[in-house]
Design a protein that fits this description.
Length: about 180
């Protein structure tokens, strides 16, 4: 009977952890998007002179009216990215900022889903076997394997930390619960 519970705990820790991790990634992205929107709104306030500044101060051609044909997001930034603009840069309009390679379509942390399942299985197995020191080996191997990619891309490093902590906490929680239930 214990083998059944151990197998069930490993399956739950390994495979049910993926939706939990995906949910945490979505939550982190939502928080980042809100922070970015707040920074954009602050930048817009700074650019338009802050409170009490009127459109007439901007000179000819300036309009805050949404019916002027400009498409903007909720934060007030242009909906069409600068890189897609067909305008040629002039001294008055700066050149579009280069788009990072990660934003163009390069996948970061390839194989993360499979590595995550293996990581959760290893962590749960280590706790169920009474060898929590083995978790340090899992973290070390994972960190060394991803070091070059994490060093190059800050977004990858953030995603790595969030994913690793979420996976490990999930697996440790499931394994600890199973261990307590097995001893009862």
């Amino acid at each position: 009977m214990n083998a059944l519970w151990i197998t069930l705990a490993l399956l739950i820790a390994g495979f049910a952890g993926w939706p939990v991790t995906a949910l945490v990634f979505r939550l982190a992205r939502t928080i980042d998007d809100r922070a970015d929107a707040g920074q954009s709104a602050d930048a817009v306030d700074d650019a338009d002179g802050g409170p009490g500044w009127s459109d007439s101060d901007a000179g000819p051609g300036w309009s805050d009216d949404p019916s002027d044909g400009a498409v903007t997001t909720a934060a007030g930034t242009p909906a069409i990215p600068a890189a897609a603009s067909t305008e040629t840069p002039t001294p008055e309009t700066p050149a579009p900022a280069p788009v990072p390679a990660a934003a163009v379509g390069t996948r970061i942390l390839r194989g993360g889903a499979i590595i995550g399942v293996l990581e959760r299985l290893a962590v749960a197995l280590a706790i169920l076997a009474g060898q929590p020191v083995a978790i340090a080996y899992v973290v070390a191997i994972k960190g060394l394997g991803r070091f070059a990619e994490l060093k190059e891309t800050p977004v990858a490093a953030e995603r790595f930390i969030i994913g690793t902590l979420t996976s490990m906490l999930w697996a440790a929680g499931v394994a600890a619960l199973a261990r307590v239930l097995l001893q009862a």
